[in-house]
Hints:
The structure is a single chain. The chain is built from one helix and three strands; from the N terminus they run E-E-E-H. By secondary structure, the protein is of the alpha+beta class. Strands 1-2-3 form a three-stranded antiparallel β-sheet. The longest helix is centred in the last third of the chain and has 20 residues, at 61-80. The relative contact order is 0.18. Residues 14-81 form the COMM domain.
Amino acid sequence: MEGSREPVLDAKAELIDFQWKLGMAVSSDSCRSLKYPYVAVMLKVADHSGQVKNKSFEMTIPQFQNFYRQFKEIAAIIETV
């Protein structure tokens, strides 16, 4: 059920660590040859009680490019404050 999914991050979470890697999917059990790049992101966050959790997700290259563009926009806005 979509409504019962745990959110990726709590709005009050503190980012402890951010790691990423570029990967290449070459095959799977249902497809012999995929050959598509992806970005894997690993986050370590502490919730409001201090409990540290690891979160990870993968993005396609277009998704990552959009993610990057949004962070550049955020950085530009922060510089004007």
